[in-house]
From TrEMBL:
<dbReference type="InterPro" id="IPR022485">
    <property type="entry name" value="SHCHC_synthase_MenH"/>
</dbReference>
<dbReference type="InterPro" id="IPR000073">
    <property type="entry name" value="AB_hydrolase_1"/>
</dbReference>
<dbReference type="InterPro" id="IPR000639">
    <property type="entry name" value="Epox_hydrolase-like"/>
</dbReference>
<comment type="subunit">
    <text>Monomer.</text>
</comment>
<comment type="pathway">
    <text>Quinol/quinone metabolism; menaquinone biosynthesis.</text>
</comment>
<keyword id="KW-0456">Lyase</keyword>
<comment type="pathway">
    <text>Quinol/quinone metabolism; 1,4-dihydroxy-2-naphthoate biosynthesis; 1,4-dihydroxy-2-naphthoate from chorismate: step 3/7.</text>
</comment>
<dbReference type="Pfam" id="PF00561">
    <property type="entry name" value="Abhydrolase_1"/>
</dbReference>
<feature type="domain" description="AB hydrolase-1">
    <location>
        <begin position="13"/>
        <end position="245"/>
    </location>
</feature>
<keyword id="KW-0474">Menaquinone biosynthesis</keyword>
<comment type="similarity">
    <text>Belongs to the AB hydrolase superfamily. MenH family.</text>
</comment>
<dbReference type="InterPro" id="IPR029058">
    <property type="entry name" value="AB_hydrolase_fold"/>
</dbReference>
<comment type="function">
    <text>Catalyzes a proton abstraction reaction that results in 2,5-elimination of pyruvate from 2-succinyl-5-enolpyruvyl-6-hydroxy-3-cyclohexene-1-carboxylate (SEPHCHC) and the formation of 2-succinyl-6-hydroxy-2,4-cyclohexadiene-1-carboxylate (SHCHC).</text>
</comment>
<dbReference type="GO" id="GO:0009234">
    <property type="term" value="P:menaquinone biosynthetic process"/>
</dbReference>
<protein>
    <recommendedName>
        <fullName>Putative 2-succinyl-6-hydroxy-2,4-cyclohexadiene-1-carboxylate synthase</fullName>
        <ecNumber>4.2.99.20</ecNumber>
    </recommendedName>
</protein>
<dbReference type="GO" id="GO:0070205">
    <property type="term" value="F:2-succinyl-6-hydroxy-2,4-cyclohexadiene-1-carboxylate synthase activity"/>
</dbReference>
Amino acid sequence: MLNYTTTGCTEKPVVCFLHGFMGDSSDWDEITDALSDDAHCIRVDLPGHGQSTGLPSYVYSMEGATQSLADVLDDAGIQDCHLVGYSMGGRVALYFAMNHPERVRSLVLESASPGLTSSADRDARLAVDKERSARIQNDLSGFLKEWYRMPLFKSLARYDLVESMITKRAKNDPDDLARALIGMSVGGQPSLWERLKEMDIPTLACTGALDDKYVKTTRYMAVGSRRMETVIVPDAGHNVHAERPQAFLSHLVYFLSRN
């Protein structure tokens, strides 16, 4: 079973949060603390992250992660929820919503993608992630420094978040992270782009204006969707809820209030 924690008011609507790669459920603390009077929050450690380690091999996949999320909701006595996912957690959230739509009241995707459309791109990305997994196992500290130098995370430095991120991520188990990276790689999952038009769930897709790649992805997703709205947050990059938590919270609360 995936590790999870709950906070807030049990009489209020359930909001479930999924973190990104190398994160853990505590990444959402500031957001869930702010929602404590208005929501029943459940925060989940994804496979290979936080305290969700040493799990059966099948769990380290998109199919396994989504089934494990369903098991968490069952264990917590939750029939359905508002589901929020960031980056890798957003991909899991989208996969879950498409395969368990009856359990998702609304969906919030932060800097998340439906996958890669071509098999060549998927193969190339999976090869990259296999190389990354080897580096994680051999030198997690060195990998983290390289990872947060990527342009995708450049904006974290504007908010003095890089060092604290590296320190926190270094507490993960390298072998489990490597398993999660390969098993849940965007290169190993089917593209969900064509299925977006089938999804009849209120959805908010958001990212930061400084993340050019995901600004484009977010807008393309909305074009192909029936019930998706978008928010591009100024002065933020890939990790909006860490860089501009109050702005993220404002958009989240407004969206939830309408769904």
